[in-house]
Amino acid sequence: MAASDENKKIEQMNKSLIDNTNQRLTTNDGVFITDNNNTLKAGDRGPSLLEDFIYQDKMAHFDRERIPERVVHARGSGAHGVFEATADMSAYTRAAFLKKGTKTPLFVRFSTVAGFKGSTDLARDVRGFSVKFYTEEGNYDLVGNNIPVFFVQDAMNFPDLVHAVKPEPNNEMPQAASAHDTFWDFVSLMPESAHMVMWAMSDRAIPRSLRMMEGFGVHTFKFVNAAGKGTFVKFHWKPKLGVHQVAWNEAQKISGFDADFHRRDLWENIDKGNFPQWDLGVQLIPEEDEFRYSFDILDPTKLIPEEVVPVQIIGTMTLNRNPENFFAETEQIAFDPGRLVPGIDFSNDPLLQGRVFSYADTQNYRLGGPNFHELPINRSVNGKHNNQKDGTGRQDILKGNVSYFPNSLGGGCPYHAMLKGEKGFESHQEKIDASKVRKRSTSFADHFTQARLFFNSQSPEEQEHIVNAYSFELSKVKSVDIRTRELAILHQIDPKLAAKVGSNIGLTPPTSLDELTLQFVRHNHPDYPIEPKDPEVKKSKALSMKQDPSKGTIKTRKVAFLVADGVDMNKVEHYKKALEAEGAEAVLIAPNVGKLKYKQGGSEEIQFSFLTEASVCYDAFYTPEGDSVNILSDLPEYFQFINEGFRHCKALAFAKGAESLVEASYIKGKDAGLILESDGQSVTDFIKAMKQHRIWERESARKVPS
Ligand code: HDD
Q1: What would the 3-class secondary structure string for 622-643 be?
Q2: CA gap 184, 486 in Å, rounded
C-alpha cells in the first residue's frame, strides 16, 4: 500500500508530462502548423492580417506567461523525494504516514524570504523549508524555515515585517537584503524580533548548501493519537551532511559569480545521484507540561532547547528526483500550513493561527482561482471527492447530476466517513473558556533571554561573525536614531555584544530601551518590564554550527584542482582518487577551457577555467606540480583563488614543486588547513582538514586581501 502510494504520485505526474519527441508542431488546439516563422501578411511586404489566428494563439499565450510571484519566499528551488517513517509513533499520533515503515512521496521547496524571484541565492536571509507529503490520507504540508523561531509573535504584524524587509517602496532598493533603514526601523521598535534577528545575523543565514541546513516547523503543533489524546510537538529536520555555512565575504562574492549557487548545487547533486537526506525529529511535550517551562510553548519567538526536551528521530527524507519543469512544479506548488492530516493539529500559537488563513488566500490569488489543487503538483494521491464545483481552470469532470450534500440521488455520496464507521480528520478537542480579547499574553513578554541563550551558545568565532553582521547591516542604516535604538536592544541581550557593535559603528549603546520602543512594547504589555523567569539552560550545544569535527564528512564537497599545461598527471590522479573515495568531487580548473596537456603526454578536456570559475564556489584547493607552476605563477586569477581560499578558512594543499606559489601569495603562517608536501603531509591530511569544514583557527590570524 505504502510503496504503491509512492508510485501513484509518479504515475500521476507522468500522465501530465508532455513529450515533444517526434511530434509535429501544433497550435494550442492541436492544429498542425506549417510556418512558425512568418505572420500572415497582405503581400510579402504588406501589413499583417488580423485573421492570423496562429500568430494570435502563440502571442496571446506568451502575453500571459507570468503569474504573480510569491509575496515572500519568491525565490525558491524544489525537488521530489520520499519520506520513510522509522519509529513507532502510534502512542502519540494516528497519522498514517508516520506509521513505522510507511513510505510517502513528497515535494520540497527551499527558498529565501526577502528577494524577488530572480534574486541571488546567497542573500543573508532566512531560508524557507517547505515539505508537501502526499500521504494516503491527503496532503500534509510542513511549511517551515531553517531558523526555529520567528520575528513576530502575532500574524497581525506579518505584513508590516515583510514591508519593512522588502526593498523600500519609493525606489525599490535594496534587493534581497535586510541591510537598510526600514528593516532595522521595524525590528528596533519590536524587541520580540530580537531572538530571530540574532539568528539572521548568524551564519545560519548564509548556508553553504540547501543540503546542509536544518529545517524547523517553528511553531508548536499537536500530535493526536487514535484515542484523541494530544501531545505538543515541535518538528526538526536534521541534514545528514551536517549544518554548514559560508563566510559573509564569500556569500557576497558568490552572489556575483553564481547567483544560482544553491539552486545549482541542489540540482546537480540530485542529478548525479548524491541524494540529500534529512532525519525528521520531534520534541514531544505532554499536555500536562504545557506551562512547565520558563517560556510559553505557544510563543513562536521561543525554541525548546534540545537539552530540555531531546529530539527523537522518527523518519528520513530523501530527495531523489529533480522537477521536470520549474514552473509547473516548483512555481505552482501551493504550500499551506493549514493543510493537516488526521493525527496532526494546530496549537493556539497566534502566528500559526494567522497563517492558516493567509496561505490558501494567497494561492487563490497567485494561482488564479480555487482549482489550484488540481494542478498535478498539488493533487493528492488519494483523490478528492466533494461537492465543490466549477471555478476558473476546473479540470475534473464530475459525473452525474448530484453536487450537494445530503443527497439521495447520488446514493448519499460522497459520504461522511463516520457513516461507514470510518474516520476522517478530527480536530483535537480542547476546552476553551475565555473572553474574546485583542491582546498579547503576558507569558510572551520576555524578548531577550533566548536571544542571549543563542548568543552564548555560539563559539567565539561564530560570535565574532554575529558582531560583524550586525556591524555591517547597521552601517548601511542611514538613520543614527535607528542604529542607536538597535544597540539598546543588543545591550539588553549582552552588553559586550552591544559595545563591540557600537564601537564598529561609532556609537555608545544606550543602557535602556528607547522611549519609542517602550511605547510599542507597552502597547502589548502595559506592565513592561516583566521579570523574566530563570531559563532551564544558559547554553545549548545544538545551537552552534561549529559541531564536533570528528563526525565530519566531505561527501559532495567540490575541490578545485588548479592546473595548467605541463601538470603532472600522477599528482592529479593520486589526489583525485583519494578524494573521490571519500565522496568528494575533483574539478580541474585551467587557464582556459579545451585541451589540457599533461607532463607525461596525453591530454584531458577541460570544462572549467579561471575565466569562468571563482574560488568562492569551491570548498578546498589543490595545486599539483609540473611545468604548470610556471604558468600559474604569472596568473593573477590563480593567486586570487588561493588567497581567497585562505581568507575564507578553507583547506589548501600544495605538491612540493608547487610550494613556491605559496610564497608568492598572501598566505602566511602554517595552520591545520595548509597542507605542504615538504612537511611530509599528504592527501590524507588534506581530507582531515576538509572534514573540519572551516579552518576555524585561521579566523583570528591575519586577514589577507582577496
Ligand atoms: Fe509564510 C510563504 C514559512 C509566517 C504568509 N512562508 C512561506 C513559505 C515558507 C514560509 C517556507 C514558502 C512556501 C513555498 O515554498 O511556496 N512563514 C513561514 C514560517 C513562518 C511564516 C516558518 C512563521 C513561523 N507566513 C507567516 C505568516 C504569514 C505568512 C505569519 C501571514 C499571516 N508565507 C505567507 C504567504 C506565503 C508564505 C504570504 C507567500 C507565498 C505563499 O505563502 O504561498 O502566504
Answers
A1: EECCECHHHHHHCCHHHHHHHH
A2: 7
206 half-sphere exposure, CB direction, 13 A CA radius: 23
Distance 569 CA to ligand 1 centre (A): 52
Q: Where are the beta strands (DSSP E) in 552-624?
A: 558-562, 585-590, 594-597, 603-606, 608-609, 620-623
What is the DSSP annotation of 34-45? S-SS---BSSTT
Q: Three cell numbers at 130?
A: 517547505
Model pLDDT, residue 1: 42
> Which grid coordinates are listed for 681?
603531509
| Dihedral sign (CA 111, 112, 118, 124) | negative
Compute the distance between CA of residue 568 and CA of residue 478 in angstroms, rounded to an integer: 54
Q: Which domains are delineated in the chain?
A: 41-378 (2.40.180.10), 442-543 (1.20.1370.20), 549-702 (3.40.50.880)
Please tell me the residue having the least CA distance from ligand 1 atom 44.
Answer: 359
Atom of ligand 1 nearest to the CA of 355: 32
Q: Residue 371 in contact with residue 334, Cβ under 8 Å?
A: no
pLDDT < 50 regions, the chain: 1-2
Residue type, 8: K
Q: At a CB cut-off of 8 Å and minimum separation 6, what does 510 contact?
A: 484, 487, 488, 491
pLDDT given for residue 418 in this prediction: 85
- Omega into 239 within 30° of 0, i.e. cis? no
| CA–CA dist 529, 447 (Å, integer) | 10
Contact yes or no for 77/331 (Cβ under 8 A): no
**What's the sign of the alpha-carbon dihedral 278, 128, 553, 578?**
positive
For residue 279, give the H/E element and its range.
strand 277-286
Which atom in ligand 1 lies closest to the alpha carbon of residue 155? 30
Q: E strands along 180-246, which residues?
A: 215-216, 221-224, 230-239
To 5 degrees, how large is the angle CA 650–CA 653–CA 655? 165
Closest CA to 698 of 646, 622, 652: 646
Q: Which residues line ligand 1 (CB under 6 A)?
A: 70-73, 76, 109, 111, 128, 130, 143-145, 150, 155, 158, 218-219, 300, 335, 351, 354-355, 358-359, 362-363
**H, E, C per residue of 84-101:** EECCCCCCCCCCHHHCCC
DSSP secondary structure of 21-67:
TTPPPB-TT--B-S-SS---BSSTTSPBPTT-HHHHHHHHHHTT---
Distance (Å, whole) CA 678 – CA 659:
8
SS3 state of residue 148: coil
Q: Pseudo-torsion of CA 494, 496, 502, 508, nearest 10°?
A: 90
Cell readout for 615 is 574560488
Q: At what angle do helices 480-493 and 515-524 cross, to 10 degrees?
A: 60
* Per-residue pLDDT tens digits for 416-427: 988 889 999 999
Q: How far apart are CA 623 and CA 615, in angstroms?
A: 13
Rg (CA), the chain: 28
Residues that are catalytic: 73, 145
Q: Which residues lie below 8 Å from residue 59, measured CB to CB, with a gap of 6+? A: none
Question: With the C-alpha atoms ordered 119, 121, 122, 125, is the resulting torsion angle positive or negative?
Answer: positive
